[in-house]
Design a protein that fits this description.
The protein is an alpha+beta fold. It contains 12 helices and 15 strands. Helix 2 runs antiparallel to helix 3 and helix 3 runs antiparallel to helix 4. Bound molecules: glycine.
């Protein structure tokens, strides 16, 4: 039997559902009453057995956890959140939670959102400091408030009110990476990298190779009863301007779930997703009949077409990374990236494995990349 997510008020959901059904015959817009087109009744007998869990490639271990919980009849939202908590708790993954790369001031700020297909409810937090599991706070926003998104200081106070402990999230390793970035930014500021102090070689100093990254984990699941849930969690763009919010806490950008259709999520340059409502669009294209891979590629093409000149390479292609992960209600799944080849993680009943994703452009080899510059 389908279990509600932890702390879920089933009574509240049933009350809300009954009210929605009662009001469902008509919709209103600007005082005008419109007849709603009839929706096909969901096929209650259809199943997705075995269930399917998909994630970004850094979620290989995480999807084992999600699958094992789903097999024990956990709600898919609880399963995907427990899954990404493993990565949030891992100090060696610098894209998320504890050990995530900080903003330009050296402070870790986390973004996350989650969405529960059966209730179509969602929650998110942005620019959250000092709490290692923003995905847990996102679920609390969904379950314990009338809101969808809390940010900054308010999000932190809310997390503390629910007993989540505050801690320093900047690990020594992440701090070293940040420091290297800071020291290599400019030869006119007062920050000196050790190599500059040693031999005064500015070009060597500037060639530290520390770049901005947009690491993230997204995880979506369909259980045997075809209920769908998803979560995205991240420390966002490394060395970002404090307060910068990416796509990961924004429903429709970094994640979208529709229990009648499927789910999609993303990692990579969040600004591109925010400008194109990418996850929502993937799910809508699947609703229109596209398979998950075709829908992901179609949205990548759309984003490539709309990319501003500043962000294109010499061949006019988007000069940034972006990946999508999608799963349809019947268990079909895909991963696709702007630049490939790339992998995504999937568990569809047999084992957790990395699969090849589709891609729009083939990543140039090192020689070609040097020529492009
Ligand atoms: N996709 C992660 C970010 O842009 O923050």
């Amino acid at each position: 039997m389908h279990q509600p997510p932890s702390d879920w008020t089933r009574r509240g959901f049933l009350k809300a559902s009954a009210a929605a059904v009662a009001a469902g015959a008509v919709g209103q817009t600007g005082g005008e009453v419109l007849a709603q087109p009839p929706r096909p009744a969901p096929d209650q007998s259809a199943r997705c057995d075995p269930p399917v869990v998909v994630a970004s490639a850094n979620g290989l271990k995480a999807i084992e956890k999600a699958m094992s919980m789903i097999r024990q009849k956990a709600d898919p939202l609880d399963a995907v959140i427990a899954a990404v908590n493993i990565v949030e708790d891992d100090p060696t993954d610098h894209s998320v939670g504890l050990g995530g790369l900080p903003n330009e001031d050296g402070i870790v700020e986390l973004d996350s959102c989650c969405m529960h297909g059966p209730t179509h409810k969602a929650g998110g937090v942005a620019a959250l400091r000092n709490i290692r599991n923003p995905s847990k706070v996102a679920r609390l926003v969904m379950q314990r408030t009338d809101h969808v998104l809390l940010v900054g200081e308010g999000a932190l106070r809310f997390a503390k009110a629910h007993g989540l402990p505050e801690e320093q999230l900047l690990t020594d390793e992440a701090r070293e990476i940040w420091l290297k970035w800071k020291e290599s930014r400019s030869d006119t500021d007062d920050w000196l990298a050790p190599d500059l102090i040693d031999d005064g070689n500015v070009s060597q100093n500037r060639a530290t190779g520390v770049e901005h990254t947009w690491g993230t984990i997204n995880c979506c699941a369909v259980d045997a009863a075809r209920n769908i849930a998803g979560v995205t969690t991240t420390s966002g763009l490394s060395f970002k301007i404090p307060g910068r919010v990416g796509d990961s806490p924004i429903i429709g950008a970094g994640l979208y779930v529709d229990n009648d259709v499927g789910a999609a999520g993303s990692t990579g340059r969040g600004e591109a997703n925010l400008q194109n409502c990418a996850s929502f669009l993937i799910v809508e294209l699947m609703r229109g009949g596209m398979g998950p891979q075709q829908a992901c590629l179609e949205v990548l093409k759309r984003i490539a077409d709309k990319t501003e000149p500043r962000l294109r390479d010499k061949q006019g292609r988007p000069a940034f990374g972006l990946k999508f992960y999608a799963v349809a209600k019947d268990g079909r799944h895909a991963g696709a990236s702007m630049w490939g080849p790339g992998k995504y993680a999937v568990h569809d009943g047999t084992e957790a494995r990395l699969e090849n994703g589709a891609y729009l452009y083939k990543r140039p080899d090192a020689k070609r990349e040097a020529k492009d510059k």
